[in-house]
Amino acid sequence: MSSIDSSLPDEIASVAESDDGDRLSKDVIFELLKNRRRREVLSYLLEADETVTLGELAEQIAAWENDTNVNALSSDQRKRVYVALYQTHLPKMDDAGIVEYDQDRGLITLSDNADLLMMYLDTDAHRQDRWDRWYATLSVIGVAVVTAAFLGVPPLDVVSTLALAGVVVGAFSLLTLAHLVTNRREERTVNGKLSRIE
Predict the structure, then answer these.
(1) Of 79, 98, 74, 88, residue with least CA distance to 24
(2) What is the pTM of this model?
């Protein structure tokens, strides 16, 4: 008799029985994310960006948990993670529509609903672009060009300082417009995801 509880929490069980497979409640999202192994499953699958085997997933998570590499793992360390993923975590994630888990073949793939959880994880792939770097770079270049023109450094001495200042302002305007368009696009994407959360 197994001591591992493989029953589904009410929130996830209701999703598994529901016809609306592309919506998740915040309760389900946070139920899934509260466990470190499930977060590690998501991180690994996001990095792999393809179907992975249960064995390879269990080995990597065991290596992370034991702060070692895959080759240095003992069979007990592998088995402990493998069994927990096989019996508990992957079935819960599959029932919630986060992963597609073929238990017979031991294959796991991220499903379409995974993006609802990814926005809550701190992953490099989901961090915002650093617009501050673009603004800082343009500021430094703008100040250098206008200062060089003002001091009469060739070849900028033939162009009026006012015209160069206008070009710098124009460049800032274009950068701001690009930033605005990108933010609107990201906002629509996030709103689309949030509309799928109950």
Answers:
(1) 98
(2) 0.56
